[in-house]
Specification:
Distance between the termini: 22 Å
Strand content: under 5%
Number of domains: 1
Shape: elongated
Oligomer: single chain
Number of strands: 0
Largest sheet: none
Number of helices: 5
Order of helices and strands: HHHHH
């Protein structure tokens, strides 16, 4: 999976699919360039939570259905916020480690010199 560097990575067709699933868009209204009722481009699973959260938070804040541009911007902000939380910070405290060893464990986890083999 590539890193997302732009809000336009959240395509309008992805947003439309999520809006349909949330009941915010009429399913009978089909885009002019679409052939048939099925979608060719499906929303990737790793983008779904960001789009759903963006739509729901914007609706709560503004009290109306947000525009596609607003959804793209908010989803990108949510993605950047999650990306800033590293894997070490996410699972830090997962294991019960004595306080005196925590710095050592963090140093080992963040070390790029150590080679980890798959299990």
């Amino acid at each position: 999976m590539r890193k997302i560097t732009s809000p336009y990575a959240f395509k309008t067709c992805h947003i439309a699919q999520i809006k349909e699933e949330l009941g915010l868009k009429d399913k009978n209204r089909i885009a002019i360039n679409r052939k048939g009722k099925h979608r060719r481009v499906k929303t990737p699973e790793h983008l779904r939570p960001f789009l759903i959260e963006a739509i729901t938070t914007l609706m709560k804040e503004e009290g109306r259905t947000p525009t596609y541009r607003e959804i793209q911007q908010k989803a990108f902000e949510l993605y950047k916020k999650k990306e800033s939380i590293g894997l070490v910070e996410e699972y830090y405290g997962f294991l019960k480690v004595p306080p005196e060893d925590r710095d050592f464990v963090k140093k080992v986890a963040e070390s790029e010199e150590i080679f980890y083999e798959g299990m």
